[in-house]
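Appendix B, example 12.
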Amino acid sequence: MSSGPVLVFDLETVPDIEGARRLHDFEGLSDAEVAEALFALRRIRTGTEFLQHPLQRVVSIGVLYQGGEQIKVSAFGRDTEDEAELLRQFFEVIEKRTPTLVSWNGGGFDLPVLHYRALLHGVAAPRYWDQGDEDRSFRYNNYLSRFHWRHIDLMDVLAGYQPRAVAGLDMIASLLGLPGKLGMDGSQVWPAWRDGNRRMIHDYVEHDVLNTYLVFLHFERMRGALSAEALEQRKGLLRGYLAQERQPHLEAFLSAWSGAAPARASA
């Protein structure tokens, strides 16, 4: 397994209402109406409502930090709705710890969104952007290169870097006997935000990083970085953490995990 710390991450985003007003003549429209207008424009142009990366405002960054025997799950965004502050908190972990980043489709969505939004807010992240100018080891293993291991986009790697072979996190987690999505998906984030259901979004993003971390552990087992015993030990550590935190959404994940069909594993 990666010898250093690991940071599993996932973003939840909503339409950038302020940015949309800069780009379009939406004077007199409410925030909800601006969002619907953006979706309508996108449908007309592309056939999908999925907004371009620069117009995705980050409202929650779910992270699971694992360093040695310590695990911590949290969502940047529970304590502040200041997007710039969320970005600073995330990149600060990279500046201080230089963890291996782990994501599901992070190369295709999460990181480009972070790039654009950090640019808009003037958030500096020199460690993240280093490609060997400051640390020579980053020349051959940095966060930005697709085929390096400092950022592991599990969706991309497992698909063999072939777009036609990609699968969703919910599918792979469920096939492994993990909880997968629990009562919410990405399409519900904007309605939840619009209606003031902030906690639901933060709980949901933490569930996603938990699923991603567990898929990562199985990936590490597959590539020989974890033994079968070490895999079970890591799972046990996570179960203990989820139980001791006494948070309803973490207990719900643990309960769903315990009730899921176990994945087959070979020694």
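Residues 221 and 227 are 6 Å apart (CA to CA). The first strand starts at residue 6 and ends at 15.
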